[in-house]
Design brief:
- The protein is mostly helical.
- It has eight helices and five strands.
- The strands form two sheets. It has a three-stranded antiparallel β-sheet, with no helix packed on it.
- Strand 3 and strand 4 form a beta hairpin.
- Helix 1 packs across helix 5 and helix 3 runs parallel beside helix 8.
- The longest helix is centred in the middle third of the chain and has 23 residues.
- The N and C termini lie far apart (42 Å).
């Protein structure tokens, strides 16, 4: 397809009107995604995170002293949370919905770009990366977003409990992406601290804490 070349800018922070506009935009995107069948990665722990774990371990990026504990930690994470993901329906979603992929053009609608990472997943995946803080501290932003989103379709509020685990899945996914190219000189220049002992210590700690802290309480998003 061919489109006219137009300027636009990334939105650093959404105000009330833009939160509602973002909700309407993603509501329409998800309506279309629900009707499309594509062979894309299924964004569930037992599918996506298992693949990412294998990529990391096979890359040689993990120090020998950390391989076993890292593998056990990720496998424990997958086992403990996978059933939560099975209880919510999935469909084609954007998969990488952050501010860098939303273009603002004054006087026009917001534009969502970069669909390279679209996956079969839960619609809440396209919300959480936009939130400025933990969900219990984002009640206004969530209210505005849902007001716009539910103009076009309903939103499963019970899926909000997946957000802390989606965040960990994202960290593991990023680690797998890094593991594929960490030996390249340009990568070391841009990510000099990635793959060091401190990095693996922190990642293992984050994963373990996500399993201990438990689920988001219903009061956090009502």
């Amino acid at each position: 397809t061919i489109f006219p070349k137009k300027g636009g800018r990334v939105v650093d922070e959404l105000n009330e009107d833009l939160w509602k506009e973002t909700g309407r935009l993603l509501g329409r995107v998800h309506n279309v995604g629900e009707t499309v069948s594509l062979d894309r990665m299924v964004w569930k722990p037992r599918h996506a995170t298992s693949v990412h774990l294998r990529t990391i371990l096979e890359s040689g990026a993990v120090p020998d002293d950390y391989k076993l504990v890292f593998e056990r930690t990720v496998l424990d994470f997958i086992e403990k949370i996978n059933d939560l993901f099975e209880s919510e329906p999935v469909q084609l979603i954007h998969g990488d919905c952050h501010f860098g992929n939303i273009i603002y053009r004054p006087g026009e609608s917001l534009y969502l770009v970069d669909f390279d990472d679209c996956v079969i997943g839960h619609p809440v995946q396209d919300l959480w990366m936009l939130l400025p803080d933990k969900i219990k501290n984002c009640q206004l932003e969530l209210k505005w977003f849902l007001e716009g989103y539910e103009t076009f379709r309903s939103f499963s509020k019970s899926s909000l409990k997946l957000i802390p685990y989606l965040q960990i899945m994202r960290q593991i996914h990023f680690s797998a992406w890094c593991a594929l190219q960490f030996r390249e000189d340009h990568f070391k220049h841009h990510f000099p601290e990635w793959g060091q002992v401190k990095y693996w210590n922190q990642l293992i700690k984050d994963i373990q804490e996500s399993c201990r802290e438990g689920f988001i309480e219903e009061d956090d998003f009502e």
